[in-house]
Amino acid sequence: MTDFLLELRSEEIPARMQDKARDDLARLFTAELEKAGLRADAIVTFATPRRLALIARDLPEATEAVSEEIKGPRAGAPPQALEGFLRKTGLTADQLVERDGVLFAVIDKPGRDTAEVLAEAIPAIIRAFPWPKSMRWGEASSSTESLRWVRPLHGIVALLGDQIVPVEIAGVRSGAVTLGHRFHHPGPITIGSAADYAEKLHACHVIVDQDERRAIIRDKASALADAAGLELIEDEGLVAENAGLTEWPVPLLGRFDEDFLGVPPEVIQLTARVNQKYFVCRDKAGKLANAFVCTANIDAADGGAKIVDGNRKVLAARLSDARFFYETDLKVPLEEQAKKLEKIVFHERLGTVADKVERVAKLARWLVEEGIIGGASPSGTTMLADQAERAARLAKADLVTGMVGEFPELQGLMGGYYAAAQGEAPAVAEAIRDHYKPVGQGDEVPTAPVTVAVSLADKLDILTRFFLINEAPTGSKDPFALRRAALGVISTILQNNLRFRLERVLLKACGDDLAQFEDVFFGRIEEKLAAFFADRLKVQQREAGVRHDLIDAVFALGGEDDLVRLLARVHALQSFVTTEDGANLLAGYKRAANILKKEGYETPSPLVGEGGGPLASASGKGEGDSESSPTPPHPSAPSALPPSPTRGEGLSYTPEPAEADLIAALDAAGPVAADAVANEDFEAAMAALATLRAPIDAFFDAVTVNDTDPAKRAARLALLARVRDAVHGVADFSKIEG
Amino acid sequence: MVLDRPEALGQSRAVTDQPLSFQRMILTLHDYWSQHGCLILQPYDMRMGAGTFHTATTLRALGPDPWNAAFVQPCRRPTDGRYGENPNRLQHYYQYQVILKPSPPDLQDLYLGSLAAIGIDFTKHDIRFVEDDWESPTLGAWGLGWEVWCDGMEVTQFTYFQQMGGFDCKPVAGELTYGLERLATYIQNKDSVYDLAYNDAVGNTPQLTYGDVFHENEVEMSTWNFEVADTDTLFDLFRKAAAECENCLDHKLPIPAYEQAIEASHIFNLLNARGVISVAERQAYIGRVRDLAKGSCQAWMEKNGWAA
To answer: Could you give the ipTM of this predicted complex?
Structure first.
């Protein structure tokens, strides 16, 4: 057993690509070994800016010898067949083995040296390497077929034990020699084997293990801040990036002019992080301090004094530019800035950003006035509506400011600062600042009413408009981030318990100018959007750990577009089916449903109503619902069965005790469950259903459904249909697994 | 620190207390790169946004012939003007361009040698190669490389050209673009570009600062770029340059055609500084310039008989 070392040395590999490159190297290497029937005990990978390395532990010296048997013609077959077989196998007739009248060729494949396997594997790995971006270089690049690598490839160390595995690719030959740190030790280093690789490099100022470099940066940066009486603002992304930019990381702490602290702290932090890859620090009071930590790639002869000074100057130049933008922006009121939005095209079919602002302002106001946001106190509503409209009108003004031009990721935040500085109400400034939220999964969801109004209106506008011009996401394409917008709407609705009919609001968001999109959009826009929301909600709930079959069971009821109510039902169902009663009721339901199915009474498509759908009707809040009773049996149940009588009346026979008990239980549970659903108390609805569990079990134990008396049989089947329909009043249990 | 390959790092300059003046730095780079086989060219006599526009870069990056050249190119970026008030931003500044085709295997070492030659001490300064892929939408060109940081300051753009004018570079050229003012403020340890020593005092000639030479230029040109330039004239010039480019292409004259593409590109930048190009129109203008540049490159390829 021998260890193998591979180092691919190149010019500086982008920091952001190094982690994936290690994974890819391990994956490709393992696959190449597998093809040859080899396996390493363990594989470790390393990446620095200048090298990508792999160590495979305990490789066998050779692949195992295998003996392969190939079946040939029968012993007495015509000579042509035999000759053909001999040609194919390369054997002579006397080398064949006869068994049961059939000839076999036995071919022994000797084991191959692992070194030989590796010599073929390495070029294959290099050629197949999936860099996100790769390039050609040098004389060889006269042909576009020349080797591609992330940056020019200069050296290959390939050692099996202490032996060089000979490889040559694009003029680079493998050996045992690599280079040390670019400045501390630019000369050659001869590696003995995998065992001394990291150690020898370390002696030449290269820490090959990225985790070790990360730990140094993390710990040292923190210690420097501590020593200065400050606290480092941790940033694992920066740790990894700096580790990807250095072979010998040396964090250094510097100070910048305190005057810059007048610039918003987010701006300073962003400038330091994005442009310079510096950490920043907090003082004891938690405020941003005038200190930064940069990570050098050398142990400087002067202890880093010149490096710190140089970095300080660069940061100062960046911050003075930022301050210039900030101070210039502060001189122009947001209303003035907002006028410039008339010149910015939002989308060629959707007018300017100013047009969009106008729509969002109206919608934000409407959401408040309708009581959807902020409740229904009339005096408060007017003020809230005014604030929502005001915030919406100013929310996009910062897009034309100098600061956001320089740092687009500060959109919203800067608007918030500028709004506060010009004396807008705090709720308005906050809404401007936070109206893009939530930006992604896990981002903070707005809860302040004004912010919620602007945030929802903004996202609903984006969604409806792009759907109207047929730019709905398809497959992996979502250029306008509509999925994210829909998820943002969903999170905001749920977090704030906002109760409304989604389709109605979506239709309102489409505004009065639906007609102008008639040439591109056909059908009912609100339905298409609601379906899109339903999909997003399923994805979101699945990711939140809700069983997908339970989501399906509730969605299968159809017609529900009050998301809060819909999810309350899902959650109640999730709790219920994990109880013993729930599991047993499910089993009883399935038995009933199976019998009905076998008898040709397919599960009715449950609760298909008109307008807002039956669930809305059950809640009594829907508009334009039919007057149908929400209690089972549902009118849309198959008509072939006579309605199962309640209280056992109308039966042509005396029901058996278990049958009578089930009828009684249904009589009792049905209205209770229906009332509970109407009151949106889904736990209570589930509890009512749970009372059916024992009678159903007893019914199946004691009563024969398939009675010879057709009247009994029909009545019992109708009874089972009642059970099924009662359950469907809460959820479509047929979708539930288990 | 062990420098066991001094030849790669060039003639390491004796570090004196006296840092290089702006002009001495240029002369040193000329000297260094001419010793490494580069033609020392002069600036292109047209207004352009970057040294890459010089025909010695753009057109020479195409085709199979080897080409090694170095030159200073004045660059104009109208929107970066600050009326001479910002210590680091200029609407007119100088780039030092080196193009080596095919890219030599020791290009990084050659480059570091040039930094050593102008007085950067690698035992005390932190040099980093930070990913920065270069793309010029107006030239239909892209390449992979880095911005080179010295103590956190970007001092050079280092690029391996992969495509120019929409054509694959065969072979690939390495391009180095030094920001001369930045490097000088760094080497001379100045906070403002206007305080740079432009020259060394010699005899009766006093030492002048960069500000002495260029400050008024920045003030007046910023005013013209942002406030005065007649936009109707500029729109007209843009159209005329585009038309003239096509006229040249009709006559199979790639170099004059390319000059008109450079002209159109700069006029577009001026229009942009005057704030009269909407976001929607912007892409259309960039696309127009790209078509002109690509057309010129294509004519150049055809004229030389090079296959794409």
So the answer is: 0.92
